[in-house]
Amino acid sequence: MAFTIEHDFSQSEKERYRRYHKAQKLSHQFEKPSFxxxxxxxDAYLAWIEGAGYKEAGHPRFxxxxxxxxxxxxxxYQRIKCEKDGSETIYYKIVGIxxxxxxxxxxxxxxxLLKEAIxxxxxxxxxxxxxxxxxxxxxxxxx
Length: 143
Known about the structure:
By secondary structure, the chain is of the alpha+beta class.
């Protein structure tokens, strides 16, 4: 199954988000994200939780990635380039990933799912689907 963008949340998903949100000690007080990328079959959820993500502005974008019941913090810079043909390319630099040690042996799978979820979120608000490029991915730090 692929990731989809969802705006509606079941009560159990709201509780799950609140539990992980609280554990991450995030600064905002959102009850739930306005939308998130979801793949229930692979038990993976990605929520953009704060920040702008533009390196030129010096502000990263923070995501909460929930996979297999584990909470993973992700810090990303992005920049958008408008191409001559009118298309857009989004360049990503993932500069921080904090994950539980329980999933360290599954690092490659986690990173592939994370990229897939970020791409799904990037394409959600656009009529013209941008091309996504991951310029850099920091090795995860396991806690």
